[in-house]
Write a structure and sequence with these properties.
This protein has about 70 residues and is an alpha+beta fold. It is built from two helices and four strands; from the N terminus they run βαββαβ.
């Protein structure tokens, strides 16, 4: 099983991870984080292939992928 963890308070909603994901696993949330950004959320966890493109692309190191 693959686990995708988003550290919401570290996310500034740049969207780079959303664009980098080949399986559309991530999406911009409608909830604000503590810093006032719409953090990324895991919209389709079952589609994740653990390529870690999202984590590699995130400039804030706000994403972790675990197998």
């Amino acid at each position: 099983m693959i686990k995708v963890t988003i550290h919401e308070d570290a996310c500034k909603s740049c969207g780079l991870c959303v664009r980098a994901c080949p399986k559309d696993v991530l999406a911009i949330s409608k909830r604000l984080n503590t810093k006032g950004y719409y953090a990324v959320e895991v919209a389709h966890p079952e589609a994740c292939i653990a390529c870690a493109s999202c984590a590699k692309t995130c400039p804030d190191v706000a994403i972790e992928i675990e197998k």
